[in-house]
Design a protein that fits this description.
The structure holds two protein chains of two kinds. By secondary structure, chain A is an all-alpha fold. Chain A has helices spanning 3-9, 12-16, 27-46, 50-70, 80-90, 95-101, 106-113, 121-130, 137-154, 156-163; one strand at residues 19-20. The chains are: A mainly alpha, B alpha+beta. Chains A and B meet through helix 1, helix 2, strand 1, helix 3 and helix 4 of A and strand 5, helix 2, strand 7, helix 3 and strand 8 of B.
Chain lengths: 174, 154
C-alpha cells in the first residue's frame, strides 16, 4: 500500500499510530544505518544507570515467569526455588542481607532456595512488596500452585500410603 | 494488556500470539494493508486480538538479530477499521510495539533493543508517540525508553 495514497486520507500522525511501512534501503544506506544505530546505542548504553539495569532485569524475570505460568506443562527446572534464586541474584544481595530485608531467617531462605520447604503465602506478598510490585504476589503464588498440582498428580507414594484410609470406593467408574 | 474501545472509552483485554498458518488466509491486503504471507518466510508474524475473540485487529512482522541483541519491526498494520480518526480501538500499534519490546527484553535483558526504519514523513510522530530515539535512518527503543513503553502498554 502506498504511503502517498494513504496521506491523502490520513494525517502522518494517524499513519504512525496504525502502521510501520516496509522501507528498502540500498546497500550503502543500510551500511550507514547500521553504523548510525551502533553509535547511538553505544551512547544510550553508556548512559544507562544501575537502577535502569535493575528494572530491566526485573522485567525480564517477570516476563519469563509470566510465560512459564501461561504454559500448561510443569517444568521441574522452573520451580519457585529456581525463580527465587534468580531474584536474589539479580537484586545483587547476599542471602543473609536479603533474608533480613524480608524479615525471615537466612536458614529458612536457604530451605526455600534448596527446595527443602514449600513457601507459605506470606512469602509471595513479601516478594511482591520487595520488588516494589514489579513482580506481583500472584505470580509467586501460581508458581507454588503449579508445583503442588504437579506433585499431587504424580505422587504415587502418597496414593499408596493413603489407600489404607479409604475403606470403600464408589461402584461406578468413568 | 488493554486496548480502548473509543465509542464508550471501554478498556478491552487484548492478547498477542504468533500468527498460525490458517490465519494467513484471512490476512488480506484489503483489510490489513499489506501482503503478509511472503513475510512469514523472513519474519515472525504476530497478531493482536481481544481476549476470547477471533477477529485480528493488528498484525506485526519481526526479525531478530541476536548478535546485536535487537528485534526489528519490519511491518505493522492495524486492521482497516482501526486506522485514522474513525478507528474503533485505540492502542493496537502501541501494544504490538510494546510486545516486540517484551520479546527483546526476555531474550536480551538490559541490552535489548527494538528498531524500525521509518518513512521520513512519519519519523517525528513515532518519536513523539512512542518516545523512540533517532539514529538517522533508523529509530530505536532501548533501556529506559524500552522499559517505559512496556510498562505503559503491557
Amino acid at each position: 500500500m502506498s504511503i502517498k495514497k494513504l496521506l491523502e486520507e490520513y494525517t502522518p500522525e494517524e499513519l504512525a499510530e496504525s502502521f510501520v511501512f516496509p522501507v528498502k534501503l540500498t546497500a550503502r544506506q543500510k551500511k550507514e544505518a547500521d553504523i548510525q544505530l551502533q553509535e547511538a546505542r553505544a551512547k544510550t548504553q553508556s548512559e544507562m544507570t544501575e537502577k535502569g539495569r535493575l528494572v530491566s532485569r526485573l522485567l525480564q524475570l517477570r516476563f519469563r515467569l509470566e510465560d512459564y505460568l501461561n504454559k500448561k506443562d510443569f517444568d521441574a527446572g522452573l520451580t519457585f526455588s529456581y525463580f527465587l534464586k534468580e531474584y536474589v541474584n539479580l537484586v545483587s544481595k547476599k542471602r543473609k542481607d536479603f533474608a533480613k530485608e524480608i524479615s525471615i531467617d537466612e536458614t529458612l531462605l536457604s530451605q526455600f532456595i534448596n527446595m527443602r520447604r514449600m513457601p507459605p503465602d506470606y512469602m509471595a506478598i513479601r516478594l511482591e512488596l520487595h520488588s516494589n510490585k514489579i513482580i506481583p504476589a500472584e505470580y509467586w503464588y501460581r508458581l507454588v500452585e503449579k508445583e503442588r498440582e504437579h506433585q499431587i498428580k504424580t505422587d504415587t507414594n502418597l496414593r499408596k500410603k493413603e489407600m489404607k484410609y479409604v475403606h470403600s470406593t464408589l461402584a461406578v467408574a468413568v | 494488556m488493554e486496548i480502548i474501545e473509543l465509542s464508550g472509552r471501554l478498556k478491552r483485554p487484548a492478547v498477542i500470539n504468533e500468527v498460525e498458518e490458517e490465519d494467513f488466509r484471512g490476512l488480506t491486503k484489503k483489510r490489513y494493508s499489506f501482503n503478509w504471507k511472503p513475510l512469514k518466510e523472513v519474519a515472525a508474524v504476530y497478531k493482536l486480538q481481544i481476549a476470547g475473540e477471533d477477529d485480528i485487529l493488528g498484525v506485526m512482522g519481526l526479525t531478530d538479530t541476536p548478535e546485536e541483541k535487537r528485534i526489528q519491526i519490519k511491518l505493522l498494520a492495524c486492521s482497516v477499521e482501526n486506522q485514522g480518526k474513525n478507528k474503533i480501538y485505540e492502542g493496537i500499534a502501541g501494544c504490538l510495539i510494546a510486545y516486540a519490546c517484551r520479546i527483546a527484553k526476555i531474550k536480551y535483558g538490559y541490552l535489548a533493543c527494538v528498531s524500525l526504519v521509518p518513512k521520513t514523513a512519519l519519523k517525528t510522530h513515532y518519536i513523539n508517540k512512542y518516545d523512540m530515539v533517532d539514529a538517522g535512518w533508523q529509530l530505536y527503543l532501548e533501556g529506559e525508553q524500552l522499559n517505559n513503553i512496556i510498562v505503559k502498554y503491557l
